[in-house]
Amino acid sequence: MKNNERYIGQGGITVITEIDPARDIQELYVLLNHIGDNINTTPVIDFASMKGLHFCRWFIIEGLKDVSGNVFPSSLVYAAYYDGSEEEHLMELLDKCRDSINMIYSYCKGFPSGTGTTDTSIVRYFKKHMSKNQLLWPAYRGGTVEQILGEQKVRDAIQTYLNQRQAANKLEGLTDEEIKAGIIHYIQANPSLKWALKQRAQPSFGWKFIYYFKLVTKLLLIVLLLPVLTVFFIPIWWLLLSRIFEKRDDKKRKQIVRTKTITDLLNKEDRVFMNQLTIYGSINKPYWYRLTTLKIGLWIFSLNGTYRSNKGKLSGIETIHFANWSLFNKGKNVMFLSNYDGAWQVYLSEFIDRSAMAMNLTFGTTANYPKTKHLLWEGAFDEQAFKTVVRNNQYPSQVFYSTYPYITMKNILNNSKIRKGLDGSSKESVSDWLKRL
Fold first, then answer.
1. What would the pLDDT profile of 222-255 be if each residue is shown by its tens digit?
2. Are 326 and 75 in contact (CB under 8 A)?
3. Which of 97, 120, 229, 316 could form a disulfide with 233 if both were Cys (CB 3.0 to 4.6 A apart)?
4. DSSP secondary structure string, 351-387?
5. Other CB atoms closer than 10 Å to residue 31's CB: what's the count?
6. Within 13 Å, how many C-alpha atoms sit on residue 285's CB side?
7. How far apart are CA 114 and CA 88, in angstroms?
8. How far apart are CA 428 and CA 176, in angstroms?
């Protein structure tokens, strides 16, 4: 297993390409919906052959406006989360799915085509149209596809072993230590599983040095700037400006009601236990204030995600696998994407219960958001209004693929701890470890 030999990090990209107005956009809808509708039966694209891919999606943005009424060009968005570097992911995408990529992106302006087209030129095209992730949050740092699938296989094998032993009355009278020893012996005897007895590789010294150097640099920056911000910026001017702009927004605020049917969304949800959320909308004016607020908020949250919430839980929420924020259309529009376990209602309720202030600080910069007060208050605390706004700004992804659609974040964390019990790195008692099985 590669994870046992070297540490592999996770990344994500968001690529936004303009659809050629000379092409029929309805044909592209049909193509993408055909791919998405057959992903779990007779897949059109061999996503499963991409060994480093966690999740990916394609969706079309059509008719989106900024708050001034200017229409954003119809565009195709590709978002993916993967192991390794963006270069490795894009090369693997072309290696495994080149014909499908050519077919899909023939509808987009400027896509390189023809007999002389190389993988390098297509990768260059994708990179040119990447939207910077203002915040990218992989829930489980270092958790590769290979590891997640492998540890689920180990857990299933152990369960089968225990069931067989139980059926044969061979567990009766054994101590916890003897049962665990039998499990380890069983794993050791199986060539396809014994990798689990070895600890997965940890980040190198160089990786850790850069990682913590960035943290120290950011903390020093906060310490150095905090006195200035405290005296001249945050408590006085920023909150005063926030209240001025909030009151101005309130004067033109419309009643929050459902503005569209959600049949298309519901048809795409709950096909498997895992779902995806695709939200995009318009940033309120004045842009300099809203964008600064949003970027500061996302910068703070990225610190939390990078250095604290990197073991499967985001602010106590353990249903999210990956999430990211991106700005596009020159900062006039914003996009939020996430992959999560379970039902939409439960997912949104968890966000409200645990992160309502964070939702206000970020989503509160967008048009038609529930009324906020002093940046952090009200807003998402009005649960029904918040959920209505999310639905109004949520759009279906025509294609959504998950490499492990039935392995939840809780499963991943539990399987990892089972693995630690096998490789000797667990601090749990044998009794507590066995309860995970």
1. 888 777 666 655 566 677 778 788 888 877 777 7
2. no
3. 229
4. HHHHHHHHHHHHHTTBTTPPPEETTTEEGGGSHHHHH
5. 19
6. 6
7. 23
8. 13
